[in-house]
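hey
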């Protein structure tokens, strides 16, 4: 069970690193106070630029996440098997 948790965590972190290779900036759309927060209203409603937040990850973040995730997956593979 522990091996699977470490491997899944490493895979998740590695995939985040790979996704950061292909994007330059993340745009987060914030909802207003009185607006309902369901999926259909989020697709239909328009978001004004003052409600948007930008996340600009540095260039080195993708490579660090990929390396940390790969080392975690290698650690999960190297863990000894439990039981007999």
């Amino acid at each position: 069970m522990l091996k699977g948790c470490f491997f899944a965590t490493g895979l998740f972190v590695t995939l985040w690193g790979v996704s950061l290779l292909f994007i330059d900036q993340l745009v987060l759309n914030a909802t207003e106070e009185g607006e309902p927060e369901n999926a259909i209203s989020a697709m239909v409603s328009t978001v004004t630029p003052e409600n948007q937040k930008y996340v600009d990850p540095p260039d080195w973040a993708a490579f660090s996440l990929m390396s940390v995730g790969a080392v975690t997956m290698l650690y999960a593979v190297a863990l000894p098997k439990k039981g007999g």
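The longest strand covers residues 26-29. The CA atoms of residues 5 and 39 lie 30 Å apart.
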